[in-house]
Specification:
Layout: E1 19-29, E2 32-40, E3 48-54, H1 60-63, H2 70-81, E4 85-88, H3 100-116, H4 118-121, E5 123-133, H5 137-147, E6 152-158, H6 176-182, H7 184-187, E7 197-203, H8 208-223, E8 228-233, H9 240-243, H10 247-263
Parallel strand pairs: 3-4, 3-5, 5-6, 6-7, 7-8
Antiparallel strand pairs: 1-2
Helix pairs in contact: 3-5
Length: 269
């Protein structure tokens, strides 16, 4: 049976009680508005850290309403329950990588909107985290690692594409220029200075190319002594946090929530 993305929440049940602001237009173009939701802690004693949730890539018809999927609603509630503003948002498809730069600019626009409207969203604009999933690696992780903004304190990737190099031998391989520009491994450069703490969740049953790219990123991160955590789910599939209802999936979700709670808890790095 196919998974109903709008109904399926995280396998770790989310708390309830978040205050929600839905369907905020953070950007508009000739295709219409791009929308963002905010899940605020029940206690309005802000400002609080904010974590933007960046869904992966697929055809436009699939991801047009990704912020409304059960998993992202759950993560909004999970984060609010930790005293963090959870911020899922919609973005367009890269159309198989041909518009990666456009989608990266949409991610940047969502972050910029949250920071510019920090007061009404009860967010501390200088304590921002990003939690990216699946194929969001090239547009949701790599640009931020390359830019190294001071406000970005923590970054997590769940079963993410960290490096495009293993995709060279596919039917539609990325160009060498795109591998360099949109791979998180390349974005690390020659120094960990200014980089946020990074959380990597790896699925053991994921595709070999995704796992290979993850391993390349980790090897480079460790070479640079980056503050990086690896959490491997040996039997987990792609999307284990909503597909594999087992103890290890729940442990990894809790660990990611702990990571953001700890890394974003104080105003200073």
């Amino acid at each position: 049976m196919a998974l109903d993305l709008f109904a399926a929440g995280t396998v770790l049940p989310a708390p309830t009680g978040a205050r929600t602001i839905r369907d905020i237009t953070y950007r508009a173009d000739d295709r219409g508005p791009l929308l963002l939701d905010a899940y605020l802690p029940a206690d309005p004693a802000g400002p609080r850290p904010g974590v933007l949730l960046v869904n992966g890539d697929a055809p436009e018809a699939v991801i047009a309403r990704a912020k409304d999927w059960g998993g992202f609603r759950s993560y909004g509630e999970h984060l609010a329950g930790r005293g963090i503003v959870g911020l899922p948002f919609n973005h367009h498809s890269t159309e198989a990588g041909t518009h990666t730069g456009d989608v990266a600019r949409e991610v940047a626009a969502a972050i910029a909107y949250v920071r510019a409207h920090a007061v009404e969203l009860e967010v501390d604009a200088d304590r921002i985290g990003v939690w990216a999933f699946s194929a969001a690696g090239p547009f949701g992780i790599a640009p931020l690692l390359g830019e190294r903004p001071a406000y970005l304190r923590a970054l997590a990737g769940f079963y993410a594409i960290w490096d495009l190099a293993p995709l060279r031998n596919t039917d539609a391989p990325p160009t060498e220029a795109n591998i360099q520009q949109w791979s998180a491994t390349s974005a690390l450069g020659d120094s960990a200075a200014g980089l946020p703490a990074v959380f990597v969740a790896r699925a053991g049953r994921d595709g070999l190319r995704i796992k290979s790219g993850t391993d390349q990123f980790l090897a480079r991160a460790l070479d640079l002594d980056l503050d990086v955590q690896l959490h491997n789910h040996p039997t987990g599939q792609h999307g284990f946090d909503i597909r594999d209802d087992d103890a290890r999936s729940r442990e990894i979700i809790r660990a990611a929530l702990d990571f953001f709670t700890e890394r974003l808890s104080t105003p200073d790095r």
